[in-house]
Each structure stands twice: as C-alpha cells, then as structure tokens.
Known about the structure:
Number of domains: 4
Number of strands: 10
Distance between the termini: 52 Å
Structural class: alpha+beta
Radius of gyration: 27 Å
Number of helices: 20
Shape: flat
Helix content: 55-70%
Amino acid sequence: MTLISFDLSPLGAFGQLSLLAALAFTLAGLALSVLGGLRHDPRLAEGGRRAAWAVFGFSSLAIAALMVALLRDDFSVKYVAAHSMTVSPLWVKIVSLWAALEGSILLWAWMLAGYAFVVALVAKRDALGPWVMASMFFSLLFFVGVNATVASPFTPVANPPAEGAGPNPLLQNHWMMAVHPVLMYLGPFSYAVAALVTGRVGRAWVTQTRRWTLVAWMFLTAAIVAGGWWSYEVLGWGGYWAWDAVENASFVPWLLATAFLHSIQIQERRRMLAAWNVWLIMAAYASTVLGTFINRSGVVESVHAFGSGPVGPVFLGFFAALMLVGAVLATWRTPHLRDEHGVDSPVSREGAFLAGNVVFLVFAVMVTLGTLFPAFVEAARGSRVTVGPPFFNTFAVPLGLGLLALMGVGPLLPWRRAPGEKLLHALRAPGLAFLVAGLLAFALGVRSVWVVLTVALCAFNVAGLAVLTLRGLRARGGGFLGLLREQPRRHGAYLAHLGLVIVALGLAFSGAYKREANVTLNLGQERTVLSERLTFTGIGTEDRPERRSVYARVLVDGEEYRPRINRYATSADNVPTPAVRYRLLGDTYLVMTAFDAEGQQWASVRLIESPLVSWIWVGTLVVVLGAGLTLVNPAAAPATRTSRAAPQAAD
C-alpha cells in the first residue's frame, strides 16, 4: 500500500498527492451532502456540490500525471516500468494508461468523478440533489480510496530500469484498444438511492434516472460491440463472441439496464412497477461492480482479464455493501413504492414490456450462473471445470428470439388492453411479413430453424415499425422530418429497434453459416478453397522498433491480402493479425498460421467466410444513433397539435 513515499519521482509524488487530495474532498463531500440532506441546509448541500468539483479537478491532475509519466518514459513509476517502453508508438503509450489494473481503476475513478461534476452542475435546485451527490460520493470513496491505497499507479521503483517491460502485445495490436475500454467505464443509480433515502419516490427520480441510464447504456452497447470487433480483428479466430467470462461481465449489466429502460416507461405512463424498477437499477449497478471483481480478481481465466491482485476481495466487499445498502433502502421504502395501477391484461403494451423484463432477468441470471459456476466448483472441490459456448447458446438463442418477438409485438399493442379486432388489425401486416420472410428464407436454402425464425421475426419487426411510422404520418402530417422533430423519443426508439434487427441478422447468419478451411500453399501455387481462388505470391517483412512482422502475400480471387504474424520485443509469443475484407453480404478473413522461415517457399493460412458480420457493426451504430435521438428535446409543436402529442410523450 502506497500513500506517499519520499522515494517517489516528482511526477509520482504529484500524482499520489492528487489522489490523496481527491480522497479527502470525497470524504468531505460525502459528509457535507449527508448533513445537507438531513438538515435541509442549502449551504451544506452547496459545499457538497463544490467538493465534487474539487474531486474531479484532483483526479484529473492524477490522471494527467500518469499520462505525462507514460509519455516521458518515467520508469521510476512502477506502472510505467511494468506497462510501457520507450519504443512504443505514441498511441500505445496513451492507451497504456488503462491497459492494466491500477490505470484502469484510475480511469474509472476519473470518469465517475466527471459524472459527479456534471450532476453537481445540473442538480443545483433538485430536491434530491444532496442525496444524489451523497450516493455518488459513496461510490467515489471506494474507487478513489482503492486507487490511493492498494492499487496506486504511482508506486515507486527503487532502481528504475533503462527500458520498460511494455504493454501486453494483444493490447497494442489494434487501434480499437484506444476506445473499447474507455466506453466500458461510462456508466448511475444515484437518483434511485436519493429517492429511497428521502422518500420522494415520485416522477422526478424516474425521469432523471432514465436519462442517465440511457446515456450509460449507449456507451456500454458501443463498448461491448467494440470489444467484439477488437476480438474479431486481433485474435485471428474469425469470431467476435465466445461467452468469455469477462465478455459476460459486461453483458449482464447491459441486459439489466435494457430491462430497466423498458420497464421505466411503464412507471412513467401507468404508475406501475415502482419497486421493480428500484431493484432493477440497483441490480444493474451492482452487476457492474461484480463484473469488475470477475475481471480483476483472478477467479476466472480470460484473454481480457487482468491478473490476480489485491483488489479482488475489496471489490467483492464493495459489491456486498451495495447489495446490502440497496436491499435495506428498498425494504425500508416499500410502503411508499405502491403502484397506482395493475396490469389490466397481459395482451397490452405493459404486458409485453413486463414479459420482456422477465426474459431479460432470466437471461442475466443464467449468464451469471454459467460464468461463476467454474469458480464455485473450484472453491468447493479444488478442481477447475469449463462452461463453454454450447451451454450459453442453449438458452441464449431461444431467449434472444423471445426478446426479438416481444420487441416486435410490444410497440404495436395499446396500453391497458388490446381488443381482439384492434389486435388482429395491428398484427396483420407484420404477421404477413413474418410468413413471407420465413418462407422466402427457406426457399433460398436456409435450413437452420433458428435462422429462419430470426429472419421471420426481423421482418415482423421491420413491418411493425413501418406500420407505426405510417400511422404517425397519417395522424400528424408534415412529413417524416416533422414527425421526427415532434416525437424524437418515440422515433429514436424505433431507430434503435431497427438497429437491433440488423444486429440480429448479422449474429444469426455469421453464427450459423460461417465456413473455414486450412490450407498450405507453395510459392506460386493456386488452389480453390471455399469457392475462392488462393494464390501464394511470396513473404515480406516489416520492422518497427517495437515489433517485427512477417506477412504473406496471398491473392484471393485476384485481390491481394496480407495476413501478418507479429513478434513483439517484450514477448516470445507470435501474435497474428488477420487480413479482412469487409463486404455487405459477408467478410473474407485470412489468417497466416505458419510459414517457411528459411526458404520462404510456402505458407499456411486459414480462410474464413462469414456472412453478414459487418451488419453487427453497422447495426450497433444505428442503435446508438437511435438511443441518442431519444435524448433530444422535442421541437415545440403547433398549438393545435399539443393536446394530441402530449399523451404520447412516454411511449
């Protein structure tokens, strides 16, 4: 544990002092916010808000100190000596800040401090403000405290080396490392806690929490898919998701947050599910901490995980504390969380949303159990078992199709109940699209039942979205852009759903119909593999200060590909870099697995054909754009339309 040491370099001492100052202001802010809330004293509450500014300022100084140490190759700082080197490119030195345990926690603490700073600016006159700040300071106290003590990045090195050890080769092999982890950390349950503490469990916390959660959900969605793209581009296996423990640790909060974003609409519109939503948002936040424990404790094996260290038990304790505090608060305020209405009919919009929530929750529980089961077995029996993709796919595919079906049906149903005639009318066009698309997919050679169902359900969703959009155009007129300006939240949700349809098609076809073959080619030899003509034309090399690369020149149907094998100065392992050609209907993916190092007369490659993989990346972009659109305040509607538009605000 390093609090402050005279052995620290000037940068290390400055960074450590900044962390300690941030910790001191976090404690002060927590105390002032709690006292301000208890005494209803605006001066104390204002002091808590200003403390958030100081915490963000000092945590910014700490992260700046570590960044400067990395850029200056200050190997007297242990983190720099262990995870950077002088010959690393500039961008690699920058991303090394979050490439290991201590730096990643510092990044998380800094971003959480940034959230607190923004909330302090916008919650000045909010009745929940002091308790919102108190809950944020509670989380900050943990992260800043861990960073200032057991996981300090500014630990000194008694005898600084002339050269650092360098980052993990996998983390410097692709630019996606620069964005994927940053997106993962942007992610709040503070308004729910504030509402429970004060007893103000009305509409205010619902609106605020929905917006903050939606922002976090957007970043988390982008981060998960960016991680899949990184895996696809770097690991050379032609896939993007393997139900890895750390992948699952990010997926569970996404499932719970997605459930919350749908059920909160029911609370807004029908004053229902108040207690459910409180438990759901707390579980979503706690699951992010549990995921951090999985990632940083060493209890699981993963290409993404950090090595075991002292922070695992600390994160587990924080997770337990969050669950305990949340359970106590929610139980205490249960009498105030009564619903004004019930579900009048399961065949209604709230019925569909609630069914979707149950599926999301079951999905999250199953993923969590499958992820932690090996750790439970090892703790109980001392032997390690593996839970692989077949287990997860067994329940993920049918649950995913169930969610796709509910996503299509839910928006078509009215609130409260759907009379038989209206229900048949609403489902007529989407149902026809379902049948036509399923039959067409089968006629074109699709024989996987799951893929046929996916195509049919995606067609159902698209037709349903078209029906809803046309209905809006007929009701309001003025064209699509006018409708979009008037109801950005509703049509942003439609756009996000369309993006999920695109992602679903990409997942279904790339998962079911990916083909691969291994082949060894002699120099000048042409062979036909997976209906592609492959010709090996030679081997080339590329030398950089941090690595040496050997690449094969292979013509695939006349187009040159250059898959590489990299050897980094800090590692004895070979790191492949595939050559990928992205196309609308499918990617061509080539990996070099071996080569003739002496005569350069042959090379072994793996050819992978993956249909519709690019749809996953494009669909995610559409999802994020749609979710962002829902945050836009609607343009002022004409006076004659105000009364008609207002009831739809929560749709």
